[in-house]
Amino acid sequence: MLYIGFNRKIFTMELDALDKQLVALLQEDCKKTTKQYADALQLSKTAVYERIRRLERTGVITGYVALLNKSKVNRDFTVMCHIRLVQHTKENVLRFEREILKLEEVSECFHVGGDYDYILKINVEDMKSYREFMITKLTAINNIGNTQSSFVINEVKNSPSVHI
Amino acid sequence: MLYIGFNRKIFTMELDALDKQLVALLQEDCKKTTKQYADALQLSKTAVYERIRRLERTGVITGYVALLNKSKVNRDFTVMCHIRLVQHTKENVLRFEREILKLEEVSECFHVGGDYDYILKINVEDMKSYREFMITKLTAINNIGNTQSSFVINEVKNSPSVHI
DNA sequence: TCAAAATTAGAACAATATTCTATTATTAAT
DNA sequence: ATTAATAATAGAATATTGTTCTAATTTTGA
Fold first, then answer.
1. Rounded distance between C-alpha atoms, residue B152 and residue A116, angstroms
2. Domain check: are B58 and B77 in the same one?
3. Nearest nucleotide (C1') to the CA of residue B45?
4. Can you tell me the distance from the alpha carbon of B92 to that of B22, in angstroms, rounded to the nearest whole number?
5. Do A145 and A74 fall within a single domain?
6. Of A9, A64, A48, A68, which Cα lies nearest the Cα of B164?
7. What is the pLDDT of residues A57-93, one digit of tens each?
8. Confidence at A5, pLDDT banded by 50, 70, 90
9. Does A55 share its domain with A116?
10. Which domain covers residue B117, as residue numbers?
11. CB A132: neighbour CB atoms within 10 A?
12. Which of B67, B87, B114 is the C-terminal boundary of a domain?
């Protein structure tokens, strides 16, 4: 697979069945010992070690992070916020996205097609702090047309991993 | 902070400034050495080691995972799918959520208030596979009223971490 | 103010990651 | 199909880091 262009993917690394199994395990828990992954895959420590290094080197694995229980840190009030811009000039779009990146309450932000222009996931402590966030930070950004907030009643599933 | 009830949080663990710094570091990169975190926090290895263990033991940290570059594994076609149910009986809701949990293409699913009942994040290879997913898996679930798919044009921000 | 409990530092030890060498398997060209 | 070159693997050797231990220090609560 070959793409032309600047900063685009040049090729898709071929992952064999063992790589896929390994990636699945690492997406579940990246803190097991090499030996544990090796036993699961019926390979030697070295084989697994080299495969992980290759996945890192080729950019398949981008990092390793700790996950938190949001309720334990008082950030379990989640809102999906839909935003419509007034005007879609390139400058407006870029400036909006730049401003959003500064907001620590926003954990996800997607530019989408359809009814609204952006869908954001926002994590705060409670409704009061959401209101505060809205009036002092979000709507302070220029060029926002209107917003629609969908409050999360229940997190059915929330995983950073992708099935391959 | 104290709550009454079954399966609710009993107390919120008090995190001091060092804990918060540490959690922030671990959410960025959980594979550094204890010594590296210790240097950053101006603490000894043991102090950091014990703090991490406590964060794990008290459930603040729920796990450690590898993050992937979705484009490298051909799962960079992302769709935010809004779903309305026909009927909201308890059984219908539970059955719907149970079915959603089985779908590996769905990485996030939130039960929300507002215009729609559920907002899903779906990761597949391309539009063709999304169509396939829609007609064979998603709409095969009973009790779905209608859906609205917002295709992601650009991921402005997509992080599993929360700012505390 | 004092005793009890928790936190921390530094050393000692155990476990694991990483490197090295040799062997085996895979690939690509003839 | 054969062979040379390359890549992947296993097992041993080494280096690094995680984990435990002990003592000292700080914090907490009466």
1. 11
2. no
3. C9
4. 42
5. yes
6. A68
7. 999 999 999 999 999 999 999 999 999 999 999 999 9
8. very low
9. no
10. 70-151
11. 14
12. B67
Question: What's the CATH number where B114 sits?
Answer: 3.30.70.920
User: Is there a single domain that holds both residue A16 and residue A79?
Assistant: no
CB atoms within 10 A of CB B144: 17
Is residue A7 over pLDDT 80?
no
**C-alpha–C-alpha distance, residues B27 and B30, integer Å:** 7
How many residue pairs bridge chain A and chain B with CB atoms within 8 Å of each other? 233
Q: What is the pLDDT of residue A154?
A: 97
Q: Which residues of A touch B68 (CB under 8 A)?
A: 23, 27, 60-62, 161-162, 164
Assigned domain for A159 exists: no
Containing B8, the helix (H) or strand (E) segment is none
Note whether residue A56 is domain-resident. yes
The residue from A16, A39, A66 where one domain ends is: A66
Asked if residue A121 and residue A59 are part of one domain, the reply reads no
One domain, residues B49 and B106: no
Whether A76 is covered by a domain: the verdict is yes
Whether B160 is covered by a domain: the verdict is no
Residue B12 has a pLDDT of: 61
Radius of gyration of chain B (CA): 20
Q: What is d(CA B86, CA A82) in angstroms, rounded to the nearest whole number?
A: 23
* Residues B5 and B37 occupy one common structural domain: yes
What is the pTM (predicted TM-score) of this model?
Answer: 0.91
Mean pLDDT for back-to-back runs of 10 residues, chain B (164 residues): 30 84 98 98 97 97 98 97 96 96 98 97 98 96 96 98 97
B152 — contact with chain A (CB < 8 Å)?
yes
Q: What pLDDT does B1 receive?
A: 27
Give the integer Cα–Cα distance in Å for A34 and A24. Answer: 14
CA of A51 to C1' of D6 (A): 17
Whether residue A23 lies within 8 A of chain B, CB to CB, comes out as yes
Chain B (45-74) residues lying within 8 Å, Cβ to Cβ, of chain A: 58-74
